[in-house]
Amino acid sequence: MRLQRHKMGADDFEPLTMIGKGALQVRICREKATGHVYAMKKLKKSEMLRRGQVEHVKAERNLLAEVDSNCIVKLYCSFQDEEYLYLIMEYLPGGDMMTLLMRKDTLTEDEARFYVGETVLAIEYIHKHNYIHRDIKPDNLLLDRNGHMKLSDFGLCKPLDCSNLQEKDFSMANNLSGALLSDGRPAAPQRTQQEQLQHWQRNRRMLAYSTVGTPDYIAPEVLLKKGYGMECDWCSLSVMIKHCLV
Length: 246
Description:
- By secondary structure, this protein is an alpha+beta fold.
- It is built from 7 helices and 9 strands, in the order βββααββααββββααα.
- Helix 4 packs antiparallel against helix 7.
- This is non-specific serine/threonine protein kinase.
C-alpha cells in the first residue's frame, strides 16, 4: 500500500544502514509512525542537473508510480526538499543476483530457469507499459526474503511513444492505388512528402537513441546509434543467462 496518509518528509523516517553513497544515496530506513522498513533513495538535485539526469529520474518515478507487479520493486511515495529528491521504496533483504552469482559461481539449470523466468515477467510487464529498462544485469535484480526476484534501478528507463502506432504502417492491405508488382504482389502505397515526414516522426518516437547501459550487457544495436527499441532488454537478458550457466 502506498504511503498516502499525509504529506511525507525525511523527518518521518529514521535512517539506518547506508547502502550506496555519492550523488545517489540509498539507505535502509524505518518509518517512525509504523516501524516499517523501507529503502530510501536520495538524489541530489544539483548533481541531477549537472549530469543531465532530470528526465531519467522523472521516467523512473513515473514508471514505478504507474506499475504494480510482484516482479518489480515497489515505490511507496516520493517527496523533495530544497536539496534532495527522495524515493521511498520496497526494501528487499535478499541482496542482488550478482552477489548470488559471486557466491555460487554458476547456477543450476533449475535455478537459472526460475530466476530468468521471473526476470522475463518483469521485462514483459514494463514493455506493456511502453518502457524499456536499458540496464538489465544481475546487479539490478534483487531478491526478497522468500527468494523471489524483482527488477530494480530504473534510472536509465525510457518511455516509448507507441500511441501513434497504426496498423497501416505494417499492412499491405492499405494499398489505396491497388497497384501490383510484376509478380502479382501488391505494391507499397506511395506516400506524400508530408506523410513520409509524419511516418518518420512516429518511428523516431518509438525508438531510443542514447548510448546507455553497462558495457558487459549492452545490446549491439545500442552501440550502432541508429535507434533501438525493446529488443535491447532481451539482448541484455541473453547475456545474463550465459553468465548464470557458464
